[in-house]
TrEMBL record:
<dbReference type="InterPro" id="IPR036869">
    <property type="entry name" value="J_dom_sf"/>
</dbReference>
<feature type="compositionally biased region" description="Basic and acidic residues">
    <location>
        <begin position="176"/>
        <end position="186"/>
    </location>
</feature>
<feature type="region of interest" description="Disordered">
    <location>
        <begin position="176"/>
        <end position="195"/>
    </location>
</feature>
<feature type="compositionally biased region" description="Low complexity">
    <location>
        <begin position="222"/>
        <end position="249"/>
    </location>
</feature>
<feature type="region of interest" description="Disordered">
    <location>
        <begin position="219"/>
        <end position="272"/>
    </location>
</feature>
<feature type="domain" description="J">
    <location>
        <begin position="49"/>
        <end position="119"/>
    </location>
</feature>
<protein>
    <recommendedName>
        <fullName>J domain-containing protein</fullName>
    </recommendedName>
</protein>
<dbReference type="GO" id="GO:0005634">
    <property type="term" value="C:nucleus"/>
</dbReference>
<dbReference type="InterPro" id="IPR042858">
    <property type="entry name" value="DNAJC8"/>
</dbReference>
<dbReference type="InterPro" id="IPR001623">
    <property type="entry name" value="DnaJ_domain"/>
</dbReference>
<dbReference type="Pfam" id="PF00226">
    <property type="entry name" value="DnaJ"/>
</dbReference>
Length: 272
């Protein structure tokens, strides 16, 4: 029992110490200061990191994440800040979004992967820096050898990676929007073409009888013109035949008259 009581007392003391640390940290930032922190110029990229929004380390357990969310959400809640309602609402939404990201196991895992990648890149960067200094004969340690500066370098890399992820997301969103716009424009064009085709078909059907009547009228006119043309051709042929016969008779008479009026030359007596 004594041992069990000692363990419970130790657990209570650890909890009490943790609560006091949280209270001390939170007391530094009032509601207004928290709102200003979340909405300060350039905070857009800082707020991409949900751990940064909730002021937590990446290895914070979920239960502690919930506690911190509750304390911050109370501080910035619009009901608690009636004189700063709009900004409080924005800050509250930022905190809520960060908590939902960390509450979900899949999205929290992705955030932790960003931290892992940031650490790997930072270690690689430090190694390259040391290698370069050694090659130049100037190596005497690097600032990141100090734990605080090393932690800061990882922090900066984390912010950069979250910013890169957000830029890629925005680019994909823009491309997706443009693609949807192109598809919609193509759909509108197809709809207009279908409407035009329907209108043309409708007009075509409505004017069918007029075209039939016009064709019949044309056919009747062509038949009449053809008969008249045939009669004229026959008359012309007859006239041409008669004219040809007359010309032949005249030609024969002319030849006969020519030969009839021929007088042979007189023969003169030969002289010796």
């Amino acid at each position: 029992m004594a041992q069990g009581g000692g363990h419970e007392e130790q657990t209570f003391n650890e909890f009490y110490t943790e609560v006091k640390e949280i209270e001390k940290r939170d007391s530094v930032l009032t509601s207004k200061q928290q709102i200003d922190r979340l909405l300060r110029p350039g905070a857009t990229y800082f707020n991409l990191n949900p751990f940064e929004v909730l002021q937590l380390d990446c290895d914070t357990p979920l239960e502690q994440i919930k506690k911190k969310y509750r304390s911050l959400s109370i501080l910035v809640h619009p009901d608690k800040n009636p004189d700063n309602l709009d900004r409080a609402q924005q800050a509250f939404e930022i905190i809520s979004k960060a908590y939902k990201t960390l509450e979900n196991e899949a999205t929290r895992k992705k955030c932790l992967e960003v931290y892992e990648e940031a650490k790997d890149r930072t270690d690689m960067m430090i190694a390259e820096k040391k290698k370069k200094l050694k090659k130049e004969g100037k190596y005497d340690g690097v600032p990141e050898d100090e734990p605080a500066k090393y932690k800061h370098a990882i922090y900066v890399m984390v912010m950069k990676l979250f910013a890169d992820i957000e830029r890629r997301r925005q680019q994909l969103e823009v491309r997706d929007m443009e693609e949807r716009k192109r598809k919609r424009e193509a759909e509108i064009e197809e709809e207009e073409q279908r409407d035009l085709q329907k209108e043309w078909q409708k007009n075509f059907e409505e004017s069918r009888q007029n075209r039939v009547n016009s064709w019949h009228t044309f056919q009747a006119g062509s038949s009449s013109a053809s008969s008249s043309s045939s009669s004229s051709a026959a008359a012309a042929a007859a006239a041409a035949s008669s004219s040809s016969a007359t010309t032949t008779v005249k030609s024969k008479k002319s030849k006969k008259a020519k030969y009839t009026s021929f007088n042979p030359p007189k023969i003169k007596p030969e002289t010796r």
